[in-house]
């Protein structure tokens, strides 16, 4: 039963992938393995991150998760993998799907690790709990069966993603759920049983999954993944948050604290460590990453004076950003020899800064299942003087791969000819490949793309630069300006660097 649902979910995610979603990416805590679903805990001077472990193969279409790892850091920059401290065999009553969890210290001084796991009984996901004498364990099953299952009265449609919070009076609360089904309950002091009934909290707008509860200055906060169109593209999740004056709500929605990321799933852990607050989350931006090959990362989180959170800036890691110069592509009309019906030619000149070659979050040009040489082309109503292009290749680790070679051509007035003095036409992943040439004045520029054997090719962004602007700040010609670039300093250039912290537009003053 559980595996059938897993297949259904994977199918849904696959459909979702065709439309895709997100932003630049932070450096992961590790690239040795893929990690996901972080939970954070501070004990003494150490930050502990409890993560899931993605083991899906390249191109995999389902979660493969068998254990959970613990990472430690004393500076929130360098993390040490302390190993797989908990795994499915630790729960004799379960057999698959080591999904999200969180660790909480009990009143007895022991550490309780609540996890999502697929039990062998009826239904799908359950919440189990393990216990250890230290934050690093060793951990053993604390209950011998699920704490929450599909047979728990008023349980969630999908019983996953527990977040456990201890209030100042010692009362422990657990929130969990997915498929829009947020649930909450009090835990008994034994940390392994529920006190009273399961409630359905109110006011948690557009809750999807992955709740994370904490308290600051007497206010309760609940961050969670939401996947509504107001904050993310179809199939992708952002992180919204709500506040309350009571640990069980009612909650008041406060806005978006983390935009969508490069993986369809999004999963927050918010914590203060050594005086600095952090948003810990995962994305698909590590080399070879994907929706089922995620990487935990973290960025600093800042507060407003009114107790609201500023939207987290996802810092770039390894992506140098678009090259400088006046990009004429935005004012051009794009065409191509072939684009797959489900892909988006318009993606190549929308000015988006990809997080990596697999980042199809703003659409992608792809020509699967054509092989050999295909082309993309820009046309302007009047001639433009151009001396460089920059190409960000699309590579989905499936049918579309980096090309074998490429060649820039221009329209001479009667035919396409190679641009004179062309430098190497780069085919590197995860970066802008800049190709220079002797300036040409033309109404059309073409990029011939030759595939590797057995693969098709794709492009996320193709920039064409006005000659002589290599030292000008990056800019794009605003759409509708008929290709006439605006100059730096005019205040109208749409800079492509969006790394500055920006307050959330729908911020609300806490009362
Ligand atoms: O990693 C498996 C599931 O994906 C988690 O439980 C959800 O929060 C989502 O990240």
UniProtKB/TrEMBL annotation:
Region (Disordered): 470-511
InterPro entries: Glyco_hydro_43 (IPR006710), Glyco_hydro_beta-prop_sf (IPR023296), Glycosyl_Hydrlase_43_Enz (IPR052176)
Protein keywords: Carbohydrate metabolism, Glycosidase, Hydrolase, Polysaccharide degradation, Signal, Xylan degradation
Entries under Pfam families matching the protein: Glyco_hydro_43
Biased composition (Low complexity): 470-483
Signal peptide as annotated in the record: 1-25
Family according to the record: Belongs to the glycosyl hydrolase 43 family.
Protein's name in the database: Family 43 glycosylhydrolase
Protein source organism: Streptosporangium fragile
């Amino acid at each position: 039963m559980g595996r059938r649902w897993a297949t259904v979910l994977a199918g849904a995610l696959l459909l979702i992938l065709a439309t895709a979603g997100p932003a630049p990416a932070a450096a992961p805590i590790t690239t040795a393995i893929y990690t996901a679903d972080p939970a954070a805990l501070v004990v003494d001077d150490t930050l502990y991150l409890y993560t899931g472990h993605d083991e899906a193969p390249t191109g995999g279409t389902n979660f493969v998760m068998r254990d959970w790892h613990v990472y430690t850091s004393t500076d929130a920059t360098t993390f040490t993998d302390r190993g797989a401290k908990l795994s499915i065999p630790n729960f004799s009553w379960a057999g698959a799907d080591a999904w999200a969890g969180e660790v909480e210290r009990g009143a007895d001084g022991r550490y309780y690790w609540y996890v999502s796991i697929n039990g062998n009984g009826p239904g799908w996901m359950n919440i189990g709990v393990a216990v250890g004498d230290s934050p690093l364990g060793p951990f053993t099953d604390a209950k011998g069966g699920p704490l929450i299952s599909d047979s728990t009265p008023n349980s969630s449609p999908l019983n996953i993603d527990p977040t456990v919070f201890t209030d100042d009076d010692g009362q422990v609360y657990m929130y969990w759920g997915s498929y829009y089904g947020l649930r909450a309950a009090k835990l008994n002091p034994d940390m392994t049983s529920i006190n009273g009934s399961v409630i359905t909290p109110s006011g948690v707008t557009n809750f999807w999954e992955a709740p994370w509860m904490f308290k600051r200055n007497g206010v309760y906060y609940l961050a969670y993944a939401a996947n509504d169109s107001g904050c993310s593209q179809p199939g992708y999740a952002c992180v919204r948050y709500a506040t309350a004056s009571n640990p069980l709500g009612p909650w008041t929605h406060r806005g978006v604290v983390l935009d969508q990321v490069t993986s369809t799933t999004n999963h927050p852990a918010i914590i203060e460590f050594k005086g600095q607050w952090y948003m810990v989350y995962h994305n698909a931006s590590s080399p070879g990453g994907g929706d089922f090959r995620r990487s935990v990362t973290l960025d600093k989180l800042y507060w407003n004076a009114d107790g609201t959170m500023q939207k987290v800036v996802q810092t770039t890691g390894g992506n140098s950003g678009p090259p400088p110069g006046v990009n004429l592509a935005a004012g051009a009309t794009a065409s191509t020899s072939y684009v797959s019906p489900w892909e988006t030619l318009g993606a190549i000149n929308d000015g988006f800064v990809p997080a990596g070659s697999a980042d199809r979050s703003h659409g992608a040009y792809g020509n699967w299942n054509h092989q050999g040489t295909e082309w993309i082309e820009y046309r302007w109503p009047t001639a433009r003087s151009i001396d460089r292009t920059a190409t960000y290749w699309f590579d989905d680790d499936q049918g579309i791969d980096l090309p074998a070679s490429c060649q820039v051509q221009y329209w001479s007035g009667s035919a396409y000819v190679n641009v004179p003095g062309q430098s190497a036409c780069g085919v590197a992943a995860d970066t802008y490949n800049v190709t220079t040439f002797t300036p040409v004045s033309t109404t059309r520029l073409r990029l011939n793309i030759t595939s590797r054997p057995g693969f098709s090719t794709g492009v996320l962004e193709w920039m064409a630069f006005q000659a002589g602007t290599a030292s000008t700040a990056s800019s794009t010609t605003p759409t509708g300006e008929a290709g006439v670039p605006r100059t730096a300093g005019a205040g109208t250039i749409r800079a492509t660097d969006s790394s500055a912290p920006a307050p959330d537009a729908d911020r609300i003053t806490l009362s």
